[in-house]
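We keep the chain:
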Amino acid sequence: MGDWFWGKGGLRLCLWMALLLTGCGRIGFDPVLNFEGRDAGDGDDDDDDDERDDGGTGDQPDAGPAFAGSVRLVGSDSCQSTSSVIAVDAGGVALGSALVVQFVIRGDAGAVSVTDSQANSYALLAAPGTSQLRTHVFVANVSTALGPGDTITVSHPSGSASSAMAIELRGVDPTALAVSEGSATDPAISVPFSSAPSGVAYCVIGVRNAAWQVSEPWVEAGVTTTDCGGAPGGSGNGAYWLPASNSGVNACEGLLLAGANQWHAVVATFGE
């Protein structure tokens, strides 16, 4: 090839090398040592991005717009006689949040109410009950923030196997758009709800002396179980949530795994 290939002073050699390197992505040779005859992306010959920013979800169904806020357990208390006191944790409860307090008790008599040390007002969303189990769900539009050292008090009749939990929903409209409830003595329960363009669907489960599970894609926010009601006399108190716009999900569904088959479910939908 002689002077024609090498060129004067190696100039033509430099041009050959530049051509080889700039064309390598199109002929299957990768400068990052990918020798598989394709680029390191999606296998097409485009220079565009791979459009796989799905966080590894692959072919999972579209869940709709993500919820931009947060759902978290603030605290719980159980097995008290007539007053369950929840100590607010270090995270506190922000001004404007929806604060859900859910209370489960064996027995069906007497009034239940909720107060806190900052005088926020709590409204009863639902209180399904049977002869041996009651589940109460309250919500507050937090007008005064709560911090460590504050308390949330559930006043209730003396009963067995009681449990109380407080869950903060931050970034939602504290006014529930819709509430649905149901009771069951079957091994399964399903409570439908109406989806919303944004926000959170929030599901409360109250169970008498049983182990249970709630179907995915519901996310567990908190679970309290008790065995202080004698033998057998336990109860379960569970909180679950998902984005209200989650496509293909229109009910909170639970399945009893063992134990007595008496339970309640309440679903509240909160907008953003």
Remarks:
- The chain has two domains: 1-59, 70-270.
- The first strand starts at residue 70 and ends at 78.
- Residues 70-270 form one domain.
